[in-house]
Specification:
Elements: E1 2-9, H1 15-29, E2 33-40, E3 49-51, H2 55-70, H3 79-88, E4 94-97, H4 106-113, E5 118-121, H5 163-174, E6 179-183, H6 186-193, E7 203-204, H7 219-226, E8 234-237, H8 249-258, E9 265-268, H9 276-279, E10 285-287, H10 294-303, E11 306-309, H11 318-325, E12 329-333, H12 338-341, E13 348-351, H13 356-368, H14 370-387, H15 390-407
């Protein structure tokens, strides 16, 4: 099978793009011919990757995209379709789109679906809102997006409110018979269905990780290699950007500060705030920055007793899957798709979203009974093996492709 995978960027761009890149690698391993088209690259392109557009066409598209964004019509016109994908659509059997925000027009997805079977994995809420990736309590998407409270914030970096127009593009895509939507969680599927109807019934296929690349390491051994104390509890916080409000890091740091009497050590990945140390008092902190190598990831994740993940809105976060694969328990909020990954009381603890006191109590409970916490970690690894493994994921995706290819018909 010849497959085109399209995402905002390569694996260094973010979780959804990393999922797209890993899917490309896994499908190649399964014997398929895959090209991964990326709007941007933060690393060196792999042999199977190409820019969505480049050269003079890329320069023109960049200018025109900037102009339409300033007017509020963010990625409204399908430049990438006319500059790249239309001319090569017959080279592929199927197109699979991933994160589109600030990168790809929904009109491109619609145009491709009229000529080729098209799959779209919904990594966030922008598939059914007027552009925001998570509504953060706003319910306007269920009726009509307008007067958006996130206007001016990424990806709605404009002063003109065109969210009603942009949401209508999403509605047209949802009504298409040529697009198969995939949802990484029941939560994301149910949330989209509360906003718009899908002509082609959506499928639930959760994200996955490669178990062979993320093997748990004995915690004491991992700490020795990292130069961490062996006899103090270790807490991990892992958002890519520790200042990102949606990830709820402020809630996590407050919880860390409240358990300072237990002498924990805090470790973090991603971009740490310069004021982080002021937020955790006397708790020692080590930042490891962005981690992309799986062996390094396994070492750091295995060293922690708990992964503190207090996200206020999320779908099926890869960092939680990865830390669980490394045998580390999760403490967090009952947010989005989190209860479908973490079974509270079995693989960690989840508390009501935004409840600071219960979050701190959960962290204290985990650190005071590290024997139980280690059991949760072992059970977390088993849960990933049973439900979130690469092999299961690839089989489900392949079956989806095959069935959709059988049923799909061109609309023009």
């Amino acid at each position: 099978m010849k497959i085109a995978i399209i995402s905002r960027g390569d694996g260094l761009t973010g979780g959804a793009s990393r999922g797209a890149e890993e899917l490309a690698r896994w499908m190649i391993e399964a014997g398929h011919a895959v090209t991964h088209f990326c709007r941007e690259f933060r690393g060196t392109p792999a042999p199977f990757q190409q820019r969505l557009y480049s050269g003079m066409g890329g320069t023109i598209a960049h200018y025109l995209n900037g102009a339409q964004k300033r007017l509020g019509y963010i990625n409204a016109f399908p430049f990438e379709y006319y500059l790249k994908l239309r001319g090569m659509r017959d080279e592929f059997d199927l197109f699979h789109f991933h994160d589109l925000s600030s990168a790809v027009s929904y009109e491109t997805v619609i145009q491709v679906s009229r000529h080729k079977p098209t799959v779209f994995t919904v990594h966030d809420c922008s598939a059914f809102t007027g552009g925001c990736t998570y509504p953060m309590g706003c319910k306007k998407y269920e009726t009509k997006c307008e007067q958006c409270p996130q206007l001016g914030q990424w990806p709605l970096g404009t002063k003109f409110d065109r969210t009603s127009f942009l949401q209508n593009q999403r509605r047209i895509a949802a009504a298409s018979q040529g697009i198969q939507y995939i949802f990484p969680s029941k939560w994301s599927k149910q949330t989209m269905e509360s906003a718009m109807s899908l002509t082609c019934p959506g499928l639930e296929i959760c994200n996955a990780v490669g178990l062979a690349q993320l093997i748990p390491i004995d915690k004491k051994e991992a700490r020795r290699k990292l130069g961490l104390p062996e006899n103090q509890p270790v807490i991990l916080i892992s958002p890519q950007d520790l200042t990102y409000k949606r990830k709820g890091v402020a809630y996590g740091l407050e919880a860390v500060r409240q358990v300072a009497d237990l002498s924990p050590v805090l470790i973090s990945t991603g971009h740490a705030s310069q004021t982080l140390e002021f937020q955790i008092g006397n708790v020692p902190h080590t930042s490891y920055g962005d981690i992309h190598q799986h062996d390094r990831m396994a070492l750091i994740y295995s060293a922690a007793d708990v992964h503190l993940f207090p996200s206020l809105a999320d779908n099926c976060p890869y960092s939680v899957l990865e830390t669980m694969a490394c045998g580390t328990a999760t403490i967090g909020f009952l947010t989005g798709g989190m209860p479908e990954i973490v079974i509270s009381g079995e693989t960690g603890l989840l508390v009501p979203t935004g409840d600071r006191e219960q979050l701190a109590t959960a962290v204290r409970s985990a650190l005071q009974d590290l024997t139980q916490t280690q059991i949760w970690g072992h059970q977390a690894r088993k849960r990933i093996e049973n439900y979130f493994s690469k092999d299961l994921f690839v089989k489900k995706i392949e079956d989806t492709y095959v069935e959709f290819l059988k049923d799909w018909r061109p609309s023009i």
